[in-house]
Amino acid sequence: MDAHSRGRADEIDPADQWVLNPQTGHYELRLDRSAGQSSQAAPSHPRPRTTRSATPPPGQRSRSEHGAAEYGGRDRATETAPPVPGQRRRRAPEPGDRPVAAGRRKRKPAKSRKKKVLMWTGGTMAFVLVGGAAGAYALYKHFDNNISTIDVAGGSTGGFKKDAAFNILLIGTDKRTGEGNGGYGDKNSPGHADTTILFHVSKDRTNATAMSIPRDLVIDIPECETKLPGGKVKTIPGQTDTRFNVSLGQSDRDPGCTMRTVKELTGLTVDHFMMADFNAVKEMTTAVGGVKVCLAKAVDDPKSHLKLPKGESTIQGEQALAFVRTRHSFGNESDLDRIKIQQQFLSSMIRQMKSDDTLTSPTKLYDLADAATKALTVDTGIGSITKLKSLAGELAQIDPKNITFTTLPVIDNPAEPRPVTVVPNPVEAPRLFAMMQSDTSLTEVKKKEQDAKNAQAQAQAKLLQGERSTARAVRVDVYNGSGITGAAQKTIDWLQNEHGVTRSTNKSNAPEKAARTTLTYAPNQADQARKLADLMGLPASALQPGTQDAGEREPMTLVLGADFKGAGVPLTGPAKAPEGAQTADKQVCAK
């Protein structure tokens, strides 16, 4: 009997199949149809192997009383549980049961086609599915006790806003914690920010951007406060021109310092953090039964002990850790190439976590929830199962095809004769930051680029048909949200004097500063918008179409943003996804 028929027949939630065995104190999988229904149900045979121990919640009935209800009053201590049967038993009719008319069957509700996304909170999402089991209180307490938290100075305490975009910093530390990890990382080191991903979730929960930050990135680390074990707050001086990875662990810096460093770097407020060590990779991959990876060539790396054949393999435990740690097996053996491998691995792990093989297996769900909550350290703002469950519910709305992995654009450090570190690309990095600040989906950018090409082709066709849209027809109000004094007037002068856009008006300062330039227009102003976009070199992402037609003399609205470089200077803003960006729904073979 497969996992699907075992857990989902008649739309019974797999979580409802878990009950507490009063004789052993363990939660076990109940396989008969009556699981989760009447306490007078016929007995079912528990799964041969038990899962995790759990203590009954306060006030619960004694084991003998509970056993009589849950196991039909049979003395399980004197019986030997037979193997799991190949077919579920039907409950025998009992006095008082309502007769069922022949030929009538209960109509099954339609199955939802939406699949859930399980990122580093995947174990918590697994808990959400297991949480409907009998004795959920005990499960809550068990998983809650697994979670480690750090109270970062200035950290958020209110979770996250459901009607706003939010950012979570995912940190992989190289600290030697956990069994069998003594040979990894730096000996006697408090750890570094070895692998760091800024995970931006859009306001409408339709997409997410996962931006990796290279550990060898040279930046300035700002002054920060950290709370010591005794509760005392220590102010740690900032550092200039140093590697990003020392923003954690070194000089008593906690994840709050890494959060502040990322904010200074990107301009994005980091709401929360999740930190994992080497054990997270080993235990979570084992919990889901392994993660599929693809290699373009065979690998035998004596340093990381990674040995895999060409093609597809399923890895877990130590082998999975070796895969994400290797630097000498792929590409030019740099940290940047290792980041690509890690992104491919995380994409594959997402696909495995949301697969039917995982979602319909109560055992895998429990093990995943248990492994994740043990392996993760989070800030106190999300440091409970209730808050993590809420967070996982938000992430579950995102389709993997709309989760884009990318890397902060960098160039070789010009201060080094033979560069071994990198610095932010002065052109490409600000574009990516602006895109994330404006909540622009990377997966939608290419679509917008194609739409812009189509619009341009249509405009050219109209010109050939004599429906020319002249600059004189353009009506636009210009607002200055760039922070540059006089930007609106300089733009008006350029439009009127250089291009004859005489119906343009300076509306002075915008209500607030804008991260990027936008042009808002009505559907019947599309020709005007295309014309102005062509003149100013506006990217497709700057165009903001409305839904209602405008009046005959109603102008469009142009807001100059922080990306404005001067009147007549084309805006090359975030109209193109960063090179190498990949979505979580596609498998890529490591090269």
Task: Spell out the key features of this protein.
591 residues; alpha/beta; 8-stranded mixed sheet; 15 helices; 25 strands; 29% helix; disordered N terminus
Explain how this protein is built:
By secondary structure, this protein is α/β, with parallel strands linked by helices. Helix content is 29%, strand content 19%. Strand 5 and strand 6 form a beta hairpin. Helix 3 crosses helix 10, helix 3 packs across helix 11 and helix 6 packs across helix 7. The longest helix is centred in the last third of the chain and has 23 residues. The chain starts with a helix and ends in an 8-residue tail after the last strand. The N terminus is likely disordered.
Short overview:
The chain has helices at 3-8, 63-70, 122-130, 136-146, 255-266, 278-287, 317-325, 335-353, 356-359, 362-375, 385-395, 428-437, 442-464, 487-499, 526-536; strands spanning 18-20, 27-29, 148-150, 166-173, 193-201, 208-213, 218-221, 224-227, 233-236, 239-243, 272-276, 291-295, 299-301, 306-308, 311-315, 376-379, 403-407, 410-412, 422-424, 475-480, 503-509, 518-521, 543-545, 556-560, 582-583. By secondary structure, it is an alpha/beta fold.
| Average residue-wise pLDDT | 75
First-residue to last-residue Cα separation: 39 Å
Strand order of the largest sheet: 3-16-11-4-5-6-17-25
Largest sheet: 8 strands, mixed
Number of strands: 25
- Taken from the alpha-carbon principal axes, the silhouette is globular
How big is the Rg? Answer: 29 Å
Please identify the structural class as seen in this structure.
Answer: alpha/beta
Uncertain runs: 1-16, 31-120, 124-135, 463-469
- Estimate what percentage of residues fall within beta strands: 15-25%
Helix content: 25-40%
